[in-house]
């Protein structure tokens, strides 16, 4: 039986903020966990998203991958999310989609509207306003303080049919684009090569041995257009090592057990 209202968001942290701020049961919030800002999208909505699963298998270091796959193999989790979206029109009588300005949440918005493209159910959007804690103006639902969530929900605006159709069509275009990385700025999503930020990550590596976590943390705070995760930056660091641009010491399968320096 459909619920009266279903809130959609990207990631567990965002869901926790929404549930706590609005005192909602778990069933009232749908969590979409895939970070759509990075990696191939061509098969993401298929029954067997093998290419996308292979990408995430390569990105996550062993310890993170093992923890994530306690909930099932990547391909099975991604396929389950796609199946959930296929059934989305029957899941609720009305929908609220929460998003900030990062590419992952903006792509989640577009994917959700694509899933709802053939339904007349009311859809509203909650757009999180800029947070002074980030100088670049990027926003995310998880940044909301819980006491501010009711006020944020009060700003929810209906998504008119024209906007829903336009963003659903944009999702289809982006899914077929083939780009490895996606940015969101000023309302537009652009695609870029997967190594677009390698120079920025390399610039954070020092000549002497330093913890990999320190080298990864710097670009995480400066990259804009999407929220670069530690897993993504550490994966690119490993790719730089494979290219001979940096050296890794210790275990490359865990960020905490690894040090890095520029190749001498």
Automatic annotation (TrEMBL):
InterPro entries for the chain: DUF1835, DUF3658
Protein name (Swiss-Prot/TrEMBL): DUF1835 domain-containing protein
Domain DUF1835: 6-127
Record Pfam families: DUF1835, DUF3658
Every DUF3658 domain range: 156-256
Origin superkingdom: Bacteria
Coiled coil: none
